[in-house]
Amino acid sequence: MPDTLLRAEGLTAGYNGVPAIRDLDLSVGEGEVVSLLGPNGAGKTTTLLALVGLVPAMAGTVTALGERVTHKRPHLLARRGVRLVPDDRGIFYGLSVRDHLRLARRRADSVRRAAVLDRFPALAELESRKVGLLSGGEQQMLAIAVALLAAPRVLMVDEMSLGLAPKIVQAMLPAIRDLAREEGIAVLLVEQHVELALAVSDRAVVLNHGRAVLAGQAADLLAGRDRLESAYFGADEFAADSVVEGVS
Ligand SMILES: Nc1ncnc2c1ncn2[C@@H]1O[C@H](COP(=O)(O)OP(=O)(O)O)[C@@H](O)[C@H]1O
Ligand SMILES: [Mg+2]
Questions:
Q1: Is the CB of 157 under 6 A from ligand 1?
Q2: Nearest to 34 by CA among 209, 171, 183, 221
Q3: So where are the chain's domains?
Q4: Which atom of ligand 1 is the closest one to the Cα of 49?
Q5: For ligand 1, atom 27, which residue shows the shortest CA distance?
Q6: Ligand 2: distance of its center to the CA of 112 in Å?
Q7: What is the pLDDT of residue 243?
Q8: Domain 4-81+152-242 - what CATH class?
Q9: Does the beta carbon of 44 sit less than 6 angstroms from any atom of ligand 1?
Q10: What would the mean pLDDT of 222-235 be, rounded to a whole number?
């Protein structure tokens, strides 16, 4: 078993006192890719925000790198190596690629910068380009590269493939898989492309109406399509007791 770098236990969080996720258990180990799946509004983004403390936990705990971080401030978590690439990619359209890399690498050394640009060679050729003029795939690459410059231990990416052509998604997801394996990063992916995500994941959790309705090994979920589809579309029959064992 890989070392668990990120763990949520009984996590409940939401907005204005109303939970959007309830009693969620989730873990990601070193070098592992775990997908967080589920229909729109299921609570995927809220989960990521709660894991980094941007949405306060109403109950339960979050542990990152072995330390209880439930009510820690988000920037402290970032400094410890827990990075979130948000669904708007967190980039600035008026700045160039070089500006982003420069801002991000204040603390990164040149070895790190070379390693990151090695992974995304296309970015090196686009350094002077304004981000607003990049394609969606290039913007996403930049967002991930910026996160990687900080040498994260835990990387969460919210809807990486939003607005990307399937061909680009098919290229980028395996790159994330390699990244996790080669650098031992614990990756939590929120994805709409269920099959593509499962193909590069070790495990997955399906959320519906703020609850984990199905979880297990990615290969098992891929093999059990019917169960997966019911978890997605008709959550009613999936009470908490039908959650697959061995999630965390
Ligand atoms: N800032 C917010 N204020 C109030 N409710 C929110 C906010 N963001 C999300 N929600 C609600 O929380 C629920 C889960 O949303 P979200 O986590 O964004 O789902 P997903 O990412 O799976 O599409 C939805 O019902 C959504 O309307
Ligand atoms: Mg979302």
A1: no
A2: 221
A3: 4-81+152-242, 93-151
A4: 17
A5: 41
A6: 30
A7: 47
A8: alpha beta
A9: yes
A10: 86
**From atom 26 of ligand 1, which residue's Cα is the shortest distance away?**
41
**161 Cβ partners below 8 Å, 6+ apart?**
140, 168, 169, 172, 173, 191, 192, 193, 196
- 87 Cα nearest atom in ligand 1: 21
pLDDT, tens digit, for every residue of 31-79? 999 999 999 999 999 999 999 999 999 999 999 999 999 888 888 888 8
- Greatest C-alpha distance within the chain: 54
Best probe residue, ligand 1, of 12, 16, 21, 45 (max atoms within 8 Å of C-beta): 45
SS3 string, 73-94, reads CHHHHHHCCEEEECCCCCCCCC
User: pLDDT digit string (tens) for 144-168?
Assistant: 999 998 899 999 999 998 888 888 8
Query: How many other C-beta atoms lie within 10 A of the C-beta of residue 243?
Result: 19
Q: Which residues contact 114 (CB under 8 A, 6 or more apart)?
A: none
The answer, yes or no, to whether any atom of ligand 1 lies below 6 A from the CB of 55, is: no
